[in-house]
Amino acid sequence: MLGPAAHGAMTTHLGCYDAHEDTYVMTDVSDRAQAAELHANYAKALAPIRGLPLQYFVTGRHAAGQLTVLRSEPGEADYNPLWSEVIVTWKAGVTPVLLTSDDQIDAAAKAGKLTATANGIVLNAPITKVGKG
After folding, report:
1. How is residue 21 annotated by DSSP?
2. CB 58, CB 99: distance < 8 Å
3. Is 59 inside any structural domain?
4. What's the pLDDT tens digit per position in 92-129?
5. Which domain holds residue 63?
6. Are 117 and 5 in contact (CB under 8 A)?
7. DSSP H helical segments within 28-71, as ranges?
8. Which candidate among 28, 66, 93, 123 keeps its CA 20 to 30 Å from the CA of 50?
9. What H or E segment, with its residue span, contains residue 110?
């Protein structure tokens, strides 16, 4: 039996999926240092898990307003609240543009404008609202 329901504040984040914003919470991270940085639970058992959707984090130079980019969302066949973290970095000499979809990241990587590297970290970050707000 579940205990009584309670309402409390949780920090939420925005991420882009196919050029719209989704809201998610970050609860657990498989890397101890990153968990501390994100004020999330450290959950070593999450990694390594294969076949998860990707969550892209742009590091270094980036366009104003850049959010994390999500490869899936609720309602998609491959949605999972667990994500494989991918670090995106613009190459030297390339002017960063606002990235709002995984297809855009894939195309820019193929064109040699950026790198997208999975780092082996798994995040538990369920999307709580499709669309901003």
Report:
1. E
2. yes
3. yes
4. 999 999 999 999 999 999 999 999 999 999 999 999 99
5. 13-129
6. no
7. 32-38
8. 66
9. helix 102-110
- Total structural domains within the chain: 1
Q: Within a domain: residue 79?
A: yes
Half-sphere exposure of 116 (CA within 13 A, CB side): 23
Amino acid of residue 2: L
Distance CA 82, CA 114 (A): 25
Asked if residue 36 is part of any domain, the answer here is yes
10 exposure class (CB count in 10 Å sphere: 0-12, 13-18, 19+):
exposed
Q: What is the pLDDT of residues 10-67, one digit of tens each?
A: 899 999 999 999 999 999 999 999 999 999 999 999 988 889 999 999 999 999 999 9
**Cβ–Cβ under 8 Å, residues 53 and 72:** yes
Q: Residue 6: what pLDDT?
A: 83
Token digits for 14? 């925005």
